[in-house]
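Our preliminary data section would be incomplete without showing what the modeling component actually yields. Below, a chain of 265 amino acids is followed by its predicted structure, encoded as tokens that our downstream tools consume directly.
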Amino acid sequence: MKDYYTIGETAKLLGVSAQALRYYDRENILRPEYINEQTGYRYYTYRQFHIIDRIKYFQSFGLSLEEIGEIIRQGTAEHLLTRLTARKEVLLEQINQTVEQIKDIDWYINYFTFSGLSDEPTGFYRSHLPERYVVEVPCDPSEPLADMEIRLAEKKGREPYSNLPYRRQYGYRLHMEDLMRQEFRPDRYFIFTKSRPDHVCPDIQVIPEGDFICFRTPILQKRWDAEAFKEYFADLPHRGLILALEYENNLTDWSEAMYEVQILV
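Predicted structure:
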């Protein structure tokens, strides 16, 4: 074993670059044990090797060189544990965010494949649905659908709605009488949020948990069977809440999009 190792020898032995060692020196993370004043050559000792190896190990945790330099300069286990605990908390939060993103992606995959599922019923069917939350705006039957879309977009862009966690699914509130007349005359236009906001949003509306009678139709085309609808609901009590939820099937044309009509019973 030699007393001193050049920067090149040290770099080769420990699998780091000479540039990295110069950076450690410049940033006062690890100074060479000896620098020749005449040549400027840097030399490291064997006992410094474990420090360089530890720097690499700390980097594998995602610690920055600035943090690592502080840890080494402090030289205490207590300071190291504080930094590692903080890093662990950051990683756990990243995991939580990743899990939520995966859930959002799964939701959107299901959303876009909803109308193409061959094993779903095609007539009336019953679904038990959880409590849900929407941001909505009123509709005027005399105005174009684009106007209510712009009004909802404006609301979403204002506080306290701009930072809500939205589900990108839009829908309408309808009336039983209009469905029986095969008319599409919504009185509310809405978008879902992922959860109930933890701050005051006066226009958040709660869709209650319950049993819903559902059917599917491209509702903007008014092609549902009004006679079958009237016959089915002739003696079936309902609670007045009727939703039509959009399920897109392409990215350019929404006029033929499938809707699931949900009627709370």
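The helical segments are 7-14, 18-26, 46-60, 65-74, 77-113, 145-156, 176-180, 226-232. The mean pLDDT is 91. Preliminary results of this kind motivate Aim 1 of the renewal.
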